[in-house]
Amino acid sequence: MRWSTVVTAGLRALRIETPSWAYGNSGTRFKVFTREGVPRDPYEKIADAAQVHRFTGAAPTVALHIPWDRVDDYRDLAAHADAHGVAIGAINSNVFQDDDYMLGSVTNPDPAIRRKALGHLLDCVGVMDATGSEVLKLWFSDGTNYPGQDDIRARQDRLAEALDAVYARLGGHQRLVLEYKLFEPAFYATDVPDWGTAYAHCLRLGPKATVVVDTGHHAPGVNIEFIVAFLLREGKLGGFDLNSRFYADDDLMAGAADPFQLFRIMYEVVAGGGLDGGVAFMLDQCHNIEPKIPGQIRSVMNVQEAAAKALLVDRGALARAQRAGDVLGANGVFMDAYNTDVRPLLAAFREEQGLAPDPMAAYAASGYGERIAADRVGGRQAGWGA
Ligand code: LRH
Ligand code: MN
């Protein structure tokens, strides 16, 4: 089997970052369901994220979201993470939940509100200084709901001005990743709606600015792996917010709704050298009805499975078939990898690292879920607070 060296080397390089907010309560505008054992603060969220790394060996960092994860002492929080065998990853800004941002944050017609929003973004860089994080993730809900509501071009000027100020504030080892999204909460024009807009801003900003591809942020039918291949070729793919969807920004478990799409995306990552560093593989999900820690473990496993299949593609045979114009031959090579059951390989890969072959079963057997349900009584369960 050709999988041993290439695949295991690739899997060793694959590091998946889990989002602190996936451990808290989440839902839709119709209902946010609660459940026992949900963390009440960032310390408990990090303890839960550490369980995902404990059983998968592939999730060593946790992304924070500010102010959802605001604490008095971020250095102490980073030390807490370290004590649990993980580290704090990307810092996510939040300029989408303040009443002042109804007509926009950094793009708002009101300069005072723009200054307030920029202040928050700069504060997030301050958090990075304290936690040692290298990545600032910027997503702007900014947009309009009705034609004529505001000037599309003027909003781009305001956005560019804020991005310039944030970029200038970044320290030597720090970088920003800009996330785009087609719609929601804006329903007419979103100010960073697609990869092209994000790419253009990042190109203008400089080498420390790259694009985040959230797999739930495209119009139905968009070929996301094309975007990935293109951005990698340009050296402008900064990372992923991995999740899956059947309709819109459903934020379901990565690979759950469309494992073939995740495979095609991971193949372009592998083919474009995206596993060699510089690309952050972050999950961005909401476990509205399923238990949260097992949901994250399953998601990490889904990404590992897609990566293992992508690493399995016989690139030599594929290139030969492609050069020969052998359409069915090329597609056949690609599908052989996708149709390969990589679960035994992943089980062996985990055992090689001293981990249990089945992380889901190992977590269930650990009793951690029952323990936190019993211990975490009282207090206010964490959530989006939307
Ligand atoms: C916006 C988004 C963004 C996060 C939020 C939790 O839809 O994908 O990445 O800030 O979800
Ligand atoms: Mn996202």
In short, what is this structure?
By secondary structure, the chain is α/β, with parallel strands linked by helices. 46% of the residues lie in helices and 12% in strands.
Which key phrases capture this entry?
eight-stranded parallel barrel, 386 residues, binds manganese (II) ion, 10 strands, binds 6-deoxy-beta-L-fructofuranose, alpha/beta
Can you walk through the features of this model?
The protein is α/β, with parallel strands linked by helices and 386 residues long. Helix content is 46%, strand content 12%. The chain contains 14 helices and ten strands. It has helices at residues 4-13, 42-56, 74-83, 111-131, 152-169, 195-205, 224-233, 259-271, 292-312, 315-323, 327-338, 343-352, 359-366, 368-375; strands spanning 16-19, 61-65, 87-92, 135-139, 143-144, 175-179, 189-190, 209-214, 237-242, 280-283. The protein has an eight-stranded parallel β-barrel, surrounded by six helices. The protein has a two-stranded antiparallel sheet with strand order 5-7. Helix 7 packs parallel to helix 8 (259-271). It is globular. The chain binds 6-deoxy-beta-L-fructofuranose and manganese (II) ion. Manganese (II) ion (MN) binds at residues 139, 179, 214, 241, 284.
